[in-house]
């Protein structure tokens, strides 16, 4: 047998193998009209399967979205409580440094807390930069609560309801401020009976003596803080520590 005949036979065998592979894969070929007819159907089935899969994936994503959003809000609220308590500690440190002499010893801005208090030739940091921002509001600015604010009366009412007894007495070092704080005449359940108004408090109270801070967010919360389920009614203060 000549070499040219062998090469011709090998070439034919390779072509047969290629056609057989295409037939098995569903692509068909010019010598297989049945595969050519079957191929569009296979592609159609694959497209339908892909569309069904994408639809199911979208439905699962829509079903999970509220839970994901709720969990994200829960984490922001936990962070807000953590930061708010740090602000409360900083207010207490500043008040003690100033001699604990009533309203004149209170800070008048968040910047004063960020500056720290003198210790020798240096300054002691009493508030982290991250804690100076409210994670629940778009502005990131805490609402400053004056000791004479009615917000304190509502907050004390909530604490009284939460502990189920008499209103908690202020810490001894804040005794000079006790008479400035509005008295709670009627203890009411402060848990919101309906939906919070939403939005944010835009009042200008970024300066002046303050004994606590709260969020500017006026939305309902996922978690509760001493039974309170509205962001703007959470007050972080060293008054009862």
Radius of gyration, in Å, reads 35 Å
Q: Total number of β-strand segments?
A: 6
Strand content: 5-15%
Describe the strand arrangement of the main beta sheet, using strand numbers: 1-2
Helix proportion range: 40-55%
Q: Tell me the series of helices and strands, N- to C-terminal.
A: HHHEEEHEEE
What structural class should be given to the helix and strand makeup? mainly alpha
Q: Could you report the average pLDDT, rounded to the nearest whole number?
A: 80
Major sheet summary line? 2 strands, antiparallel
- Identify the overall geometry: elongated
Low-confidence stretches: 20-30, 186-193
What's the tally of helices? 4
- Tell me the span between the first and last alpha carbons: 105 Å
Features of the shown structure:
two-stranded antiparallel ribbon, mainly alpha, 4 helices, 241 residues, 6 strands
In short:
By secondary structure, this protein is mainly α. It is 45% helix and 9% strand.
SSE diagram, text form:
Layout: H1 3-25, H2 33-97, H3 110-115, E1 117-119, E2 122-124, E3 143-145, H4 150-163, E4 212-214, E5 220-225, E6 228-230
Antiparallel strand pairs: 1-2, 3-4, 5-6
What does this structure look like?
- By secondary structure, this protein is mainly α.
- It has a domain at 74-233.
- It contains four helices and six strands, in the order αααβββαβββ.
- It has helices at 3-25, 33-97, 110-115, 150-163; strands spanning 117-119, 122-124, 143-145, 212-214, 220-225, 228-230.
- The strands form three sheets. It has a two-stranded antiparallel ribbon. Strands 3-4 form a two-stranded antiparallel ribbon. A two-stranded antiparallel ribbon has the order 5-6.
- The longest helix has 65 residues, at 33-97.
């Amino acid at each position: 047998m000549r070499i040219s005949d062998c090469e011709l036979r090998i070439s034919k065998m390779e072509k047969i193998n290629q056609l057989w592979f295409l037939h098995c894969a569903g692509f068909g070929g010019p010598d297989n009209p049945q595969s050519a007819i079957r191929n569009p159907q296979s592609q159609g089935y694959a497209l339908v399967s892909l569309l069904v899969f994408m639809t199911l994936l979208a439905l699962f994503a829509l079903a999970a979205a509220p839970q994901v959003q709720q969990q994200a809000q829960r984490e922001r609220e936990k962070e807000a409580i953590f930061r708010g308590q740090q602000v409360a500690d900083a207010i207490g440190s500043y008040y003690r440094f100033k001699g604990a002499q009533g309203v004149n010893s209170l800070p008048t801005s968040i910047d004063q807390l960020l500056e720290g208090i003198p210790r020798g030739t240096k300054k002691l940091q009493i508030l982290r930069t991250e804690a100076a921002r409210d994670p629940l509001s778009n502005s990131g600015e805490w609402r400053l609560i004056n000791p004479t604010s009615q917000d304190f009366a509502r907050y004390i009412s909530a604490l009284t309801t939460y502990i189920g007894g008499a209103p908690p007495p202020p810490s001894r070092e804040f005794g000079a401020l006790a008479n400035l704080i509005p008295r709670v005449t009627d203890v009411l359940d402060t848990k919101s009976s309906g939906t919070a108004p939403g939005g944010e408090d835009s009042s200008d109270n970024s300066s002046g003596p303050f004994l606590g801070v709260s969020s500017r967010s006026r939305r309902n919360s996922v978690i509760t803080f001493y039974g309170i389920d509205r962001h703007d009614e959470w007050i972080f203060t060293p008054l009862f520590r």
